[in-house]
């Protein structure tokens, strides 16, 4: 996926402002080839934070270090929450926990929130083709959550969200449709694959002249509160 520098810089700059945990100690436990690592690796470095490179596994020396230098930012998938729950509290960030790549439920998040009452959890969504993430829902400290899946939230700055039917017509609130994303985060396409690029990156009739939107292949629906609920992949 060819992501322009402008899109990446805009994303990192916004993350540095949005996530106060980036100004502290960010624990990078995922591979740098996984795009969600972009947040933990680069955002702290532009706002004066620190990046700690370490696998997300128990290490007594690491636990002792984190006791003196608390982790304030961690990016992971919801599947990692079970692993995080089995580790000592020092491994749970005190400020910001960013979760994406899979549906997130209130039940999966419960223990981390109880262990860190001041934690703000961010349920994010976005394929690599939109420069890491394009939507977010922040679960604030003390906020009560309904059981089940948590909304993927609303668009992040610079992005446009469209929920469309098979004929590329916007669907009403509550009706299932495919998610298309436009805006500054849209990648240029797939390197050396013009056919696939033309199939997935299509003209954006609601954006500026010449702009494109990305067809995610994911089914969603608008909620009455203006957020988006993830349903699943269109091919499933």
TrEMBL record:
Keywords: Phosphopantetheine, Phosphoprotein. Pfam families: AMP-binding. The keyword Phosphoprotein applies. GO terms for molecular function: phosphopantetheine binding. GO terms for biological process: amino acid activation for nonribosomal peptide biosynthetic process; secondary metabolite biosynthetic process. GO terms for cellular component: cytosol. Residues 1-191 form the AMP-dependent synthetase/ligase domain. This is Non-ribosomal peptide synthetase.
